Amino acid sequence: MFFLAQYFQTVHGEGPLGAGLRLMPWTGTLMVCAPIAGRLADKVGERTFVVGGLLLQTLGMGWIAVVADTDTGYLEILPALVIGSAGLTMAMPAARPLRSHDPPRDDRHHEPPPHQRIHPNLTKRLKPRKTQPKGSKAHSE
Questions:
Q1: Helices marked H in 16-136 — which ranges?
Q2: How far apart are CA 40 and CA 42, in angstroms?
Q3: Residue 57: which of 75, 73, 33, 39 has the closest Cα?
Q4: Phi-psi category of 55—alpha, beta or left, where left has phi over 0 and alpha has psi -120 to 50?
Q5: What distance in Å separates the CA atoms of residue 84 and residue 26, rounded to the nearest whole number?
Q6: Scanning 7, 53, 82, 138, which has its CA 20 to 30 A from the CA of 75?
Q7: Is 137 in a helix, a strand, or coil?
Q8: Mind listing the pLDDT tens digit for each residue in 19-71?
Q9: Which tens digits make up the pLDDT trace of 72-116?
Q10: Nearest-angstrom CA–CA distance, 13 and 18
Q11: How far is CA 53 from CA 36, 117, 138, in A?
């Protein structure tokens, strides 16, 4: 999408706002179709939606790659934007539940978080200290 915005700006001579407005069908399709695709994926099956969605995404991006030229009009690219966005919309909500079916990880080989890899005692230093409430003996001394 970054390169498509650059294409609209450099080849078609649009400004940043004009390029952004020409990408709105991509974003609009995502917002409209994502809830529908999520509900349908539960009924039909996630894998079907992921594969079908990524195929549509590929079709849309391939269409843009074949058609995009210096004399290509926006209306020639518009259907590709909608098809690619619809494909992405189908794949995203459906792919999330597939992660929950992964086999459980072996905790013995669990890698510690980066801040613990730097210095093992760092977590002790970062823990908040317990403070005494106002009015307690320890606080008034």
A1: 16-22, 24-44, 46-67, 74-99, 114-118, 122-126
A2: 5
A3: 33
A4: alpha
A5: 8
A6: 53
A7: helix
A8: 999 999 988 888 888 888 888 887 888 888 889 999 999 999 999 999 998 89
A9: 999 999 999 999 999 988 888 777 665 555 555 555 556 666 655
A10: 9
A11: 13, 39, 63
**Residue 67 token pair:** 């058609």
pTM of the model: 0.63
Amino acid at 96: R
Report helix, strand or coil for 135.
coil
The Cα 116–Cα 78 span in angstroms is 49
What does the block give as tokens for 15? 């400004």
Q: Residue 133: phi, psi to the nearest 5?
A: -65, 155
Cβ-Cβ contacts under 8 Å for 59 (sequence gap 6 or more): 83, 84, 87
Token pair listed for 100: 């929950």
